[in-house]
Write a structure and sequence with these properties.
Elements lengths: L8 E6 L3 H11 L2 H4 L5 E6 L7 H5 L6 H4 L1 H9 L4 E4 L10 H7 L2 E4 L5 E2 L12 E3 H8 L15 E5 L3 H11 L12 H8 L5 E5 L11 H6 L6 E5 L8 H9 L1 H19 L6 E6 L2 E8 L5 E11 L5 E11 L2 E4 L3 E2 L17 E2 L2 E3 L5 E7 L2 H4 L7 H16 L9 H10 L7 H16 L17 H9 L2
Parallel strand pairs: 1-2, 1-4, 2-3, 4-18, 6-14, 7-8, 7-14, 8-10, 9-10
Antiparallel strand pairs: 5-15, 11-12, 12-13, 16-17, 17-18
Helix pairs in contact: 1-14, 11-12, 16-17
Bound molecules: NADP nicotinamide-adenine-dinucleotide phosphate.
Length: 467
């Protein structure tokens, strides 16, 4: 540690999702700060005009419990030691060198927002979509098209993680049932046109290896006029699966849920106009197109349990008639300008959050946290412990290196560059505006809506800046 000069430690955080906000919170409440040994001043930058990253643009709109996290993030952002600069793209609007001149440390918290690649024939056909793109559309992301072709009656969703559940649940819901959420008008109109009757979720492993979580799985049963369909042949467990179920309370709870649904299905096969099928032990082999290059089917390969907790292909294939395929097989982090990138894992090379150079030595003052640090796994809560590790190292290493650490100079610099940045006050204005749009609209029960999101970037910026 160097002797503290008479100024706060200036820290820039790139990304205002949970990773960036939790890291800022932990830094501002660290022991060093609480004991009066260190003062910090934190600026969070985001490429979007509104804060909260994945919470605003990655969480399903019908997940108000998770949206509730916004309330806690809000409280954190009210801390006067933390400022928000939205609509600022790292690498172009502000470069690493420009940040290093103005900040003693930079924390990358940019997350992972692209789909992992799937290498099977037909993956590029019209009607084969990455889940991340679809999630961005239904969450009103400013940079994706306003239109989404919801034309398929039968849909395959690949993957057995919570994103697959989100996508399948939202796809199978009736549009009017989404009006209690904050979906933008274009998204409601899109879902209203959907002729969907059957959504098939495919997991390549067995029910004992699902990556769902119990609460999220149970939520599937709450959709109105949607029956869940399960297949008995997927529930013949081997010894390894039985051991997995016994040793993991989450899996045990989910198997219980699935067994209950199977019982209910036997007693009452269901009459809903939409069905959500859960298939296990099937890997995608090929997306099959028609003569116009549009998806017309998916060919799945049947797997069997291998007795050791894994699976092996049986050689049997099954073709399902579907007109759209959504790939929810995991996210992948993107490369950022001027820092290293691990192409295999989609993360910034780092050691416990200290960013590494080509020789695997820590680069002074550079840190990473969240999914760009550890990869796209874990619930939002696990981001906190991750941030703690990064922040602990940042405080251990800290040094007052910035040559121009005057907070107001950042605003002047961005203004001079013509960057139309948004601020925390601007977010309050946009937030109120979106709430007022909600109050002026009604849901299917005639109740005012809580919020209607503003989608176009220019509108978000203009409203935030009061222009
Ligand atoms: P995930 O949990 O890692 O699930 C990815 C799924 O894709 C797994 O079932 C995986 O199967 C499957 N997969 C991977 N490659 C495949 C391939 N080539 N063919 C077929 N299947 C393949 O990822 P995620 O669903 O994107 O979620 C990311 C994180 O965000 C998770 O921690 C998740 O819990 C969290 N999240 C939480 C919520 C919530 O509501 N709480 C919502 C969304 C996301 P294997 O298991 O066999 O590898």
């Amino acid at each position: 540690m160097t002797q503290a000069p008479d100024r706060p430690l200036r820290v820039a955080v790139i990304g205002s999702g949970p990773a960036g906000v939790y890291a800022s919170d932990l830094l501002s409440k660290s022991d060093a700060v609480a004991d009066g040994d260190l003062e910090v001043s934190i600026d969070i930058f985001d490429r979007y005009p509104a804060p909260f990253g994945l919470i605003r643009y990655g969480v399903a709109p019908d997940h108000p419990r998770i949206k509730g996290i916004i309330t806690s993030l809000h409280k954190i952002m009210e801390n006067p030691a933390i400022r928000f600069f939205g609509n600022v793209e790292y690498g172009t609007d502000i470069t690493l060198a420009e940040l290093q001149e103005r900040y003693d440390a930079v924390i990358f918290a940019t997350g992972a927002y692209y789909d992992a690649s799937l290498h099977i024939p037909g993956v590029d056909l019209d009607g084969s979509y990455g889940a991340a793109d679809f999630v961005a559309w239904y969450d009103g992301h400013p940079d994706v098209s306003r239109e989404w072709p919801l034309e398929a009656r039968e849909i395959a969703v690949l993957g057995n993680g919570n994103v697959a559940l989100d996508v399948a649940r939202v796809l199978s819901k009736h549009a009017d049932d989404l009006l209690v959420t904050e979906i933008p008008d274009n998204v409601y109109e899109g879902f209203k046109k959907s002729p969907v009757t059957d959504v098939h979720i495919f997991g390549r492993r067995g029910p004992a290896q699902m990556k769902f979580t119990p609460l999220e799985l149970r939520e599937l049963a709450k959709s109105r006029d949607v029956d869940i369909v399960l297949y008995d042949e997927d529930f013949e467990f081997d010894e390894a699966s039985r051991a997995a179920i016994e040793s993991n309370n989450q899996i045990k709870a989910m198997i219980k849920t699935l067994d209950k649904w199977r019982e209910e299905q036997k007693e009452n096969p269901g009459t809903a106009s939409r069905r959500l099928h859960l298939h296990f032990l099937q890997s995608p082999a090929e997306i099959v197109g028609d003569e116009n290059g549009k998806v017309r089917a998916i060919r799945m390969e049947r797997n069997e349990l291998d007795g050791a907790g894994g699976i092996r292909p049986t050689g049997e294939t099954i073709e399902y008639s579907v007109q759209a395929v959504y790939r929810a097989i995991g996210y992948f982090g993107s490369e950022l300008p001027e820092v290293g990138y691990d192409k295999l894992r989609g993360v910034i090379p780092n050691q416990e959050g200290r960013v590494l150079d080509d020789t695997e030595s820590p680069i002074p003052g550079l840190y990473a946290t969240g999914w760009i640090k550890r990869g796209p796994v874990g619930l939002i809560g696990s981001t906190k412990s991750d941030a703690l590790e990064t922040i602990t190292h940042l405080i251990e290493d800290h040094s007052f290196s910035a040559s121009d650490a005057e907070p107001e100079h950042v605003n002047e610099f961005l203004d001079a560059k013509g960057v139309r940045f948004t601020t925390w006050d601007g977010w309050h204005t946009l937030d109120e505006h979106e709430r007022s749009l909600g109050e002026a609209a009604t849901d299917a029960a005639g109740q005012p809506r809580k919020r209607v999101k503003v989608v176009p970037r220019e509108d978000m910026v203009n409203i935030s800046r009061g222009e």
